[in-house]
């Protein structure tokens, strides 16, 4: 991907203002206390605005059992984005070899072996096996609130494309019609939530970044069936950036994880996700780099 | 390490109460909304009780550039705990091979290559290169507030030994005497903060889990020099669990990252860390699994 010049400029502005902290690896950035305050303020706004929905809250760490991702089909669809955790399990002599190579700047990858965890690629993945373990869904299905750090191996200088970022999601698991109703309701509701903090977004059909030629067919089919919608905002790139996505999975996760409705049917599912770093970047783009000058109403909603 | 039976019992109680969610991999656990609420309540209490110290706040993601850990000596001291992120960078044919192996339950580790990031092992590691990049320390040094997810490759059924957990740290970088003063001040102050939420702790000399025979000598030297102190609380294991640690690094990070004081001397550093999951587990151990029955004063301080 060619990075338009403007991206670099916005990234440089964010770094100069101390809001983002470069680490030497593209897409791996620290955040200032102010950036974090805005991000957590929006996170809390999502909590407040969905409190009456009665979602069950659960949180998972930024690592996930490899077996869970294997079962979900993630590695077949997105092998290039997935990160697996390797570690050292050698002898004392091999540890000395490792340290010597590190000191000498030599490759030490062959001294690492695969563990049974990966870095979580999307906040909702651990939800499906957790829901499945509880047995059939209750009548009316379940609604789960999840938030956490996600990893995608896609180094980029676009400040809106970080390798590690946080996602606040709601996941609906129920019968087909119940899931479709919930999904349809969030098309406007998500836009209103973002508009409440001054972000005017457009809703567009979208597709996931599936790998390879087969992946391009999958993406095309996903788009035709309107399974993925995104709310986009012009953060920095030539093309507006998705800051919210709404995904209807059909019975994909229901089949993979054997989740049944109370009637014994395969459960359908959908999820709504706010990209927290992206929403925060959009807020800085819209209202400026100094939060003191943001509109009072926005500051109030974000708890600034 | 042999896990005493009691650990398993406390873990089972936490799981039965829905506070922790097993994932199938030891030490990788989800947390309920209630667990998270308590944890974030203590995190915020640390913020409030240190607000007057004027620490600079910065947050880093749960991944860190490999080059930063290589420079810090972490891989020489703790190769067995470190996790490096590998990913797929092959062709379409290799992606099909990967998917086929995943579906068939075969090993696919040779289709992964090392990326330039690792999973962060302690919240403070990204702080040193960030401070170094700003040039010499100002007179009086710097104080940094950092919080984030940490990874240690040490699968265990002890609920207090998770592979992924969060740490809230303060890092002091200054001249030797200033660092030693700050370090000394936190010995009692940390105990008082924990006591304010009902946790009576003991302070004990400690050492880091260095690898191998040479590591045992390093650990012994660290203990003799009183470089690492821990506040321990009996969470679940036979031996009390450290829930706070206080580490004087001497000029270790100052030398590794070339950090200088305003006088041009090599900077010394120290850090104070609260293990947030461990403090939370200690609170459940001390006050019971039902937060509704906790003492009013504790509930108030934690915002419950």
Summarize it.
The first copy, chain A, has helices spanning 5-16, 33-50, 66-72, 74-77, 92-104, 127-133, 176-196, 212-224, 252-256, 276-287, 296-301; strands at residues 20-22, 29-32, 56-59, 63-65, 83-87, 113-119, 142-151, 164-174, 202-205, 228-233, 241-250, 268-275.
Helix and strand topology:
Two copies of one chain form a homodimer.
Chain A: H1 5-16, E1 20-22, E2 29-32, H2 33-50, E3 56-59, E4 63-65, H3 66-72, H4 74-77, E5 83-87, H5 92-104, E6 113-119, H6 127-133, E7 142-151, E8 164-174, H7 176-196, E9 202-205, H8 212-224, E10 228-233, E11 241-250, H9 252-256, E12 268-275, H10 276-287, H11 296-301
Parallel strand pairs in A: 3-7
Antiparallel strand pairs in A: 1-2, 4-6, 5-6, 7-8, 8-12, 9-10, 10-11, 11-12
Summarize this structure as a short list of keywords or feature phrases:
disordered N terminus; 304 residues; alpha+beta; 25% strand; three-stranded antiparallel β-sheet; seven-stranded mixed β-sheet; 2 domains; homodimer; BirA Bifunctional Protein, domain 2; globular
Q: Can you tell me about this structure?
A:
The structure is a homodimer of 304-residue chains. Chain A is α+β, with helices and mostly antiparallel strands and 304 residues long. Chain A has 2 domains: 9-83 and 121-302, BirA Bifunctional Protein, domain 2 (2-Layer Sandwich); 88-117, no CATH class. Chain A is built from 11 helices and 12 strands. In chain A, the strands form 3 sheets. In chain A, strands 3-7-8-12-11-10-9 form a 7-stranded mixed sheet. Chain A has a 3-stranded antiparallel sheet with strand order 4-6-5. In chain A, α2 packs across α10. The radius of gyration of chain A is 21 Å and the shape is globular. At the A-B interface, β2, α2, β3, β4 and α3 of A face β2, α2, β3, β4 and α3 of B.
